[in-house]
Amino acid sequence: MDITTYIQNMGRAARQASSSMATATSDTKNAALTRIGEQLDAHRDKLLTANQRDLDAAHKQSLDGALLDRLELTQDRINGMLEGLNQVIALADPIGQMTDMGVRPSGIQLSKLRVPLGVIGIIYESRPNVTIDAGSLCLKSGNACILRGGSESLQSNRAIADSIESALASTGLPNTAIQIVNTSDRAAVGKLITLTDCVDVIVPRGGKGLIERISAEARVPVIKHLDGNCHLYIDDDADITMALALATNAKTHRLGVCNAMESLVIAEGIATQVLPQLKAIMDSHNVALRGCAKTRHIIAGIDAATEADWSTEYLGPILSIKVVDGLDSAIDHINRYGSQHTDAIVTHNTERAQRFVVEVDSSSVMVNASTRFADGFEYGLGAEIGISTDKIHARGPVGLEGLTSQKWVVHGDGQIRQ
Amino acid sequence: MDITTYIQNMGRAARQASSSMATATSDTKNAALTRIGEQLDAHRDKLLTANQRDLDAAHKQSLDGALLDRLELTQDRINGMLEGLNQVIALADPIGQMTDMGVRPSGIQLSKLRVPLGVIGIIYESRPNVTIDAGSLCLKSGNACILRGGSESLQSNRAIADSIESALASTGLPNTAIQIVNTSDRAAVGKLITLTDCVDVIVPRGGKGLIERISAEARVPVIKHLDGNCHLYIDDDADITMALALATNAKTHRLGVCNAMESLVIAEGIATQVLPQLKAIMDSHNVALRGCAKTRHIIAGIDAATEADWSTEYLGPILSIKVVDGLDSAIDHINRYGSQHTDAIVTHNTERAQRFVVEVDSSSVMVNASTRFADGFEYGLGAEIGISTDKIHARGPVGLEGLTSQKWVVHGDGQIRQ
């Protein structure tokens, strides 16, 4: 079978499965998630063996350490997958919620009903745990899904797929509710993202290059997570101890995550007090600083930040620093160079805090809190399928609700339009 | 200036204007809308003269009657534009609404803040009234917009643009908050829909061909309104008088609108009673019927419906009819051939009504009401910028709220992530 036919068949099967999924009860969906966990638990050895084959092949191709780390499954990571399943089981089911009910002057009763999107395509890197995370969120939200993990993880994903398939079959849900693209042919992605008849939304997860390419080529709507070039702005009216604690947490708590601070913006009036202390802290964490001219005037011996630095998500031990004359310049700088992900202000001035909240055009805006809180679990969504840097549909952490939409429901007793 | 530079400049100006628009108060926005109305009213003659030039040119090119009708402005139509402005002024401002407030276990206070999308690009046919409708909705929802009407209406739109510009200037809003593409060069559209840095969403309005082309070529997210192939399903348990009244209203109230019924689906058990009466009614409205084999067995002398008929939005005096054995077949037929716009069931059986509501995958699903109610005004949204047949973001009639999104707002007092 050629790849076009293969993906089309998957799409049709997913579309068909989506009808049953849309009407599945919470109990049935939770039972299926429980069974998936049981199957994975029962087949740990098979899973680890398959994963070892992926790892061996990756070693032979001399793939880099970060990729190997993401690819590797261990007993602990399998435990994490099972724990994730339990968390999704515990989440409230958004499907079937009715809101905005009312009677219109014509006499029709109007309401909105929360329903699944239908079929979700997820394209991700070689991280087998995402197969379970993404699949379980789609299942719980009543969607069918087609999962396309990185080709390096194909053996692992096949083993996971076997567990999923037998679990679905045993709970009466269609075994095509969660399908895994079983080929490393990259043409599969190109086909999947243009299958407008059968796929309702594409969620790409991974590096910026992958996501930009998918966004450019997709015909199906995309919920995308581009970069997290997050800022912390220290205002003149900041508590300096708090500011230093927040900057330290935002930068050093985890370096390689999307909600880490990549750039510090600071008001001129407070910079001379804060920056030398910040330098000492960042030195102790081996974080290199790159600054604007004013920054380098206050803390000598650091590299100059280039224009490119202001737009860069380092995902590593580098921090750029910009001294500004006040709030207006800070907001301009953040809106110009930021990635509309997460930006925070440290201040006790409520008026400036409010202006920052309203005027910084990012999915999460924070006052006196670490950017690291921009996260589905911290926001109470449970697991997240990603953090959207788009403005339409879901913004910021996307949980179950982001995988649903609302249809209008009208009840009448024979009303006609006059 | 080449077209690329021209559109890029408009995009940058719109992006800049969007910051002021996002913080404009309801009073300021309403004052601007009032001033726009005053300016239009004061310059009726200029507007009609410009429109006459468009009409003369269109006549010379022998453009069709429907286009000429949409293009023409009259005193009545200008009154309609002013009335539309007043309706938008009367709508509640969605910007600034805070919802989902709560304190998380970490101590951060979380909420969602409703904000404008930013910059909206609207591409539409040669209908000068849309310039005011779309512009006023974007303005009220705090967005900047770039409007690109059909080239046949360029003179009319220039005259409207003059009124808008002087109104904006006099209320202190940026005069680039509403910009009109002042060229008939079609390359402008191609540039506008790929201007991802400056435009947040594209709303195409018009024929299916235009919308499909824009969706295929756009890089900016699109809120689209494709066809309205709407169904009415008459169940075995329908009140026959009600069913006939609803079918008549849904088909004949207005033929050329997207929420008109294009296809009637009817249960076998009731078809012999209903179809002959329906035929008489449709005959009296000069609506031609096309039926499946079973339909033609009941009402002789009508054309056979081909496979293509089931997918066709006639927008005219034709109705296709399909007899099915019951609800399952009806739902299958509608989900297969419908356009996910609006579909209705006539029944007194609450269980089947509920199944129809849940299982028919359309933006509006109705029980015992005419499909003609799928409309922003009827749903209480006020004006609508379109009716979305997409599933993500806004589904069905898109009013002010569909032109907004929600950002996450976090307030803390120094919380760091553990």
What are the key terms here?
homodimer, 418 residues, alpha/beta, four-stranded parallel sheet, 16 strands, 44% helix
Can you walk me through this structure?
2 copies of one chain form a homodimer. The first copy, chain A, is of the alpha/beta class. Chain A has helices spanning 3-23, 26-42, 44-60, 65-71, 75-90, 128-140, 154-171, 187-192, 208-217, 240-252, 268-284, 293-298, 307-310, 327-337, 350-359; strands at 98-103, 109-116, 119-123, 144-148, 178-180, 201-204, 230-234, 261-267, 288-291, 303-304, 318-324, 342-346, 364-369, 386-388, 396-398, 404-415. A 7-stranded parallel sheet of chain A has the order 10-9-11-8-7-12-13, with helices on both faces. In chain A, helix 5 packs parallel to helix 6 (128-140) and helix 10 (240-252) packs across helix 11 (268-284). Chain A starts with a helix and ends with a strand. The relative contact order of chain A is 0.13. The model of chain A has no long low-confidence stretch (mean pLDDT 95).
Largest interface in this structure: A-B, 68 and 68 residues
In spatial order, strands of the major sheet of chain A run 10-9-11-8-7-12-13
Which structural class do the helices and strands of chain A define? alpha/beta
Q: How big is the Rg of chain A?
A: 24 Å
Give helix % range of chain A.
40-55%
* Mean model confidence by pLDDT of chain A: 95
Strand share of the residues of chain A? Answer: 15-25%
